[in-house]
Every structure is written in C-alpha cells, then in structure tokens.
C-alpha cells in the first residue's frame, strides 16, 4: 500500500530513509503521544518491513508541528530539502501525501527537487504507484481534491471572520491599528491611535506617501507593541511605507468589508467616512508605480470589475521558482 515517486536507488550499501511528519495546528503537541509520533511510528514500521531492500532509517527527525500544508515555508521541510540537496537522503517517507503538501503545484516542485538529486518519495498509506502514467493521474486527482478541501476551509474561515465583523467582533490576532479588542472580542476605538488613522487618510489626499512616512518616523510613531503567549515582545517598529499602505488599504476603517464581490457593512465604529476611504483607495491605485516586467505585460492596464487597477503578487514558497499573479481588490488571484 504505497505511492512511490522518483528514480532508482543509488548503488550504496543502504537506502537512507528520512521520515517527514507534519501537523497543521499546535493543538495537542504538548501531549505524551502526538499525531507526529503516530505518523512516525507507521513510517518506521514500514521502513523496517523493507529491510530486504536495504532500507535504513536515518536518525534525524523532520517534524513540522503547527505548520500548514498550504505553504513550503516550514523549518523541518527546509532542513529535509537541504539534506536532499547535499546527497544525505535517498528516500523520503511520509504517512500520507498531504503531510508533505496540500498544493498540487508545490508537490510538483518538490518532486522536481527530489528527482534532480536522485531522491525518491514514498507515501505509506496510499495504494498507488506513480511510476506509470495511470499512477501519476491518480496522484494528481488526489492532490487536486486536497487543494480543493484547503480552499473550502479558507473560504469558511474568511466567511466566519466577515460574519464576526458584521456583529462587531474580531476573529483573533492583532487588531487593526487604531482599534482595541475588549474582553469578549468586540472591536472598540483606540483613543491614542485612532486620531492618527484619520490623519493619515486626510493627509494622503495631498501628501506623498514617502513624506507621510518620514513625518511619522520623525515623530517617533511606531507599530503596536504586543507580547505573545510565549512571553516574547513584538512590534514597536518604526512606521514604513508598507505599514502605512496597509492601513490605507484597510476598508474596516470605513465600517465596511468586501465579501464575495460585495461590500458589507459591519458593526465596528468607523474612523473615517466611506467616501474618504474610496477617495484614498482611488488615489493609491493612481499613484501606484507602473513598471511592469516583461512577463507581467498587463500590469498597470488590467482593472477589476469595479474599475480599480489590479496589482501583481509573487509566490515563491520554499525552493520554488517564482510565479507571478494578478490580484483583484477582493483578494481573488487571477
């Protein structure tokens, strides 16, 4: 019951096997036996059963606890790929394919890395062999459904956040600059920072962004300071163009958010008017630099359904080749 990808093993005394495990959340990682341990035990047993094929488990651990399969930016995965590129791993063993990645595109990129360094990939609990065309078709179908499931989960999370905001509640994390979170999750105005938000929107209509940022830095205004559950201090950094741009792009300050292509009013006290936010939003897109690269020939001339210029984003997770996309105002990637 295995899925196997890659080239023939090298003529070494043993096939060096690395077990990779992953869990999407940190919940339960403090228990005596975790999901990572269970995955490792299954993979360990399978490697032992292949002793006649000279398989030997490497002593190193590659465990990513609390990391999503939607990205390749994972420390244990990065260490594994480094060891593969250094020629220290012949075979990667996982419990299921989605432990390695939930993205079809990322999987193809990982397999490319494996093949370039004569490494092989095995999924213990899935019954197909990708050495032939039919097996590769089945593999692609499985990964497509895994990616579809992840996108459905993302949609549910976004819908939940929008529903909470509609009732004046914050979904969690760091609140937007200019707001505080009361016990119970309700967003309220931060009397110290809210006037600065209104000032930024007002001044941006007549002042270049660089001048605004320089003024904020000279006044010693910083990002919000906060402390994580682990006791580490974060924030308190000088304001940058990216920080100010994020504030100006956030429609929550006008009492609205965009969901499924429509603007929804939320029960959050606005810091600016809806008209002011629209004026600034239009200015931001008019002032955006128009320097399209040869492979982004539509940058600067492509607009969404509301007549607003679409931006470009680049995704380069892990060891992947950079991919460019066009992104609409509702966050939809084209």
From TrEMBL:
InterPro entries: DNA_bind_recomb_sf, DNA_bind_recombinase_dom, Resolv_N, Resolvase-like_N_sf, SSR_resolvase. CDD domains: Ser_Recombinase. Transmembrane segments: none annotated. Residues 16-168 form the Resolvase/invertase-type recombinase catalytic domain. Residues 176-290 form the Recombinase domain. GO terms for molecular function: DNA binding; DNA strand exchange activity. It comes from the Bacteria. This is Recombinase family protein. It comes from Sphingomonas ginkgonis.
């Amino acid at each position: 019951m295995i899925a196997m990808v890659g080239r023939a093993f090298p003529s070494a005394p043993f096939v060096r096997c690395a077990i990779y495990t992953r869990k999407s959340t940190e919940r339960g990682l403090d228990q005596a036996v975790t999901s990572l341990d269970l995955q490792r035990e299954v993979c360990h047993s399978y490697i032992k059963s292949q002793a006649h094929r000279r398989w030997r488990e490497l002593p190193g651990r590659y465990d990513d606890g609390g990391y999503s399969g939607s990205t390749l930016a994972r420390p244990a995965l990065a260490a594994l790929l480094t060891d593969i590129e250094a020629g220290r791993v012949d075979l990667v063993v996982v419990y299921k394919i989605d432990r390695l990645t939930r993205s079809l595109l990322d999987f193809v990129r990982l397999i490319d890395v494996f093949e370039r360094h004569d490494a092989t990939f095995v999924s213990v609990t899935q019954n197909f062999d990708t050495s032939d065309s039919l097996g590769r078709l089945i593999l692609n179908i499985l990964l497509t459904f895994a990616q579809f499931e992840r996108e459905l989960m993302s949609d549910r999370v976004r819908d939940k956040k929008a529903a909470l905001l509609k009732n004046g509640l914050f979904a969690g994390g760091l609140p937007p600059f200019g707001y505080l979170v009361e016990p119970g999750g309700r967003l309220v105005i931060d009397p110290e920072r809210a006037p600065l938000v209104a000032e930024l929107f007002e001044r941006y209509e007549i002042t270049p962004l660089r001048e605004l940022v320089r003024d904020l830095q000279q006044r010693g205004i910083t990002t919000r300071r906060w402390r994580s559950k682990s006791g580490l201090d974060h924030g308190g950094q000088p304001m940058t163009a990216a920080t100010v741009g994020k504030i100006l792009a956030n429609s929550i300050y006008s009492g609205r958010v965009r969901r499924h292509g429509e603007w929804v009013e939320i029960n959050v006290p606005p810091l600016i008017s809806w008209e002011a936010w629209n004026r600034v939003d239009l200015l931001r897109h008019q002032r955006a630099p128009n320097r399209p690269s040869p492979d982004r020939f539509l940058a600067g001339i492509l607009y969404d359904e509301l007549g607003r210029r679409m931006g470009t984003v680049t995704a380069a997770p892990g060891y992947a080749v950079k991919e460019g996309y066009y992104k609409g105002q509702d966050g939809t990637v084209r």
